Amino acid sequence: MNHNGHHFEHPKDRDRPQARTTVIYTNWRRSSQLQKITEDCSRQSANPEILVVDNASDSRHRYEGIAHRIVRYTNERKCWQRWMEIHYTNTEYILIMDDDLTFVDQDVIADCEQYMDENPAVQAVGINGVNLLPGRSYWRSMHHPAGITDTRTDIIKGRFFFLRPEHISLMPRALDEYNDTCDDICVSAMLENKVIPAMLMSRITNLKEGLEALHASQDQRRKRDAAAAHYFSHA
Questions:
Q1: Within a domain: residue 1?
Q2: Which of 183, 198, 199, 210 is most buried, by the most CB atoms less than 10 A from its CB?
């Protein structure tokens, strides 16, 4: 399988116990913050594999922190690149996580693994979801964080997206009009059974986003409306 990025593997991986989950982060302009996040991730009791998609490899924001694997790119596929890396993982579960979040406790990933083990029909879980309402746009639909009960959802927001990779094995590798930055909407449309579970309530904390946060852009807000209409027939 042809892999266009420059791929670096941690030398200690040969002696490392097999992880059940690969956590995939994308670096763009927050490499110093991502270093703290990966340090927190390395302390998770589940002992996950950490993969960093470094989309800023040719700039001063190049990532040089903790990771079991670093794949270097120059942002040509933006957010979609992190999903492409799933083709090169071999763990039972994948966690896609943004570089402005970190864990409140050390058992978040282990509890996600247990939840998925106990609920085999569930294909993905997250901390924030959107239920699309007929005749309503993405932004005018029902947005909900993890609460006191498990909630079925149409879209899992890409900030924290824990899934079984076999359910997206036919994911397209090419970019379309929306999936470079509305990747979570595209992937959510491929899955049928998605849940925002109560066990994730208040277990992830926000860090500084910065002006480069995608959702701060009016163009991105319009694009998410269009992406939801494109990928979901009832949007």
A1: no
A2: 183
Number of domains the chain is built from: 1
Q: Considering the entire predicted model, what is its pTM? A: 0.86
Q: How far apart are the first and last CA of the chain?
A: 36
From 66, 72, 62, 14, select the one nearest 44 (Cα to Cα).
66
Domain that holds residue 120: 6-231
Question: String of b and e for 15-54 (b: at least 16 CB within 10 Å)?
Answer: eeeebbbbbbbbbbbbbebbbebbebbeebebebbbbbbb
Half-sphere exposure of 2 (CA within 13 A, CB side): 2
Model pLDDT for residues 173-197, shown as the tens digit of each residue: 666 778 778 999 999 999 999 999 9
Q: Is 78 left (phi over 0), alpha (psi -120 to 50) or beta?
A: left
pLDDT one-digit tens code per residue, 79-111:
888 888 888 899 999 999 998 899 999 999 999
Report d(CA 42, CA 127) in Å as an integer: 20
Residue 166's domain is classified under what CATH number? 3.90.550.10
User: Does residue 109 lie within any of the structural domains?
Assistant: yes
